[in-house]
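seq as requested:
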Amino acid sequence: MSDATPTTLPAWLAHQARRRPTAIALRHKRLGVWQARNWAQVQAEVLAVAGALRAGGFGPCAQLVILSRPRPEALYAALAAQWLGGVAALFDPLEAAGKQATVLCETEAGFVFAEGLEEILRLREVGLVPGWLAYADGRGLADPVVRGEALDYDRLLTSEAEYGAPPVRAEDAAFVFHRLGAAKVERQGFSHAELLQEGERLVRGERLSEHEEALAARAFAASGQARYLLAPWLVAGFRLNFPERLETRDQDRRELGPSLVLGTRETYGRLHELVRQRLPLPGSLRRRLVDWALQQDGGAPRRLLGHLLVRRPLRDVLGFSRTRVALLVGPPLEEEAQRFFAGLGIEVRNWPAAERWIELRERDVASWSLGRPQTA
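struct tokens:
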């Protein structure tokens, strides 16, 4: 591959793997221990998954539905689909099952990567039987029928890796998102060029470097994550961390102390409420001390004592002890929450959501080549 500036997400992955093969690219906490992967290992795993997809008939313009919480395997699957010139359609397994079932059936998902048993059962309950189905977590999958029709993630890694340059173009779609609108299913898509433009703008604007630590905690299936976390991760080459489970994300954040935090109004609002519930009762001496320390005005003594006695402990509770860049995508924070984080010395900066939903029509479905995979 040439030294020209990469123009697609897979090309940026190849660039980082070539330039910094042994640098840590990604970490995932499993059984209480952080497991690390360097850039060369990430690329090798992505290419192995791409080989399994290609063997199943996946190719340019095909769509891979990913029904998963944030985890490395889901990210590898998305990049593998893009490496082959296809598109990754991200679905949140925590979304209401009824509405999501309508969307999944409408999009005719032929290639699906599911997190585990719960997600596979969600597909089966609506009668959706993909021609190619793989899963990341096999716990609870005792049903031989399910195991027979689905591929365990470890089996994907035995596929022959293809190390050629990815055939994808900058103008090709990288991620698509679907939702059930008022009357029909709606979709929005983002090309590699768009995502990289947004990612590079964020890297420059926030002065992100390869030394950042970021946590992919909640909304993997959201356009904001693709624009402001995944694309910057590839461009800047920093470390992306995945919590062990959704339920442990706060504990894992406190342990990690990420320098880069990306969230929504709901994310920051939940953290604000978490701290508010632990604060002393209003009117008490301890509460007056907290309120005094969180006021932004005041001289050096207040700033120093407030930091030592209140702000630093509260930042530790939130897992923001080393946070340098706090980003918010979508609607702005409530005024009370904004003042709270500002009092902690955390400037939560708002980046645009850039939502542009359009109705999904029959000709759109056909254009994505969503039919069943090729069979032998």
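The chain has 15 helices and 15 strands.
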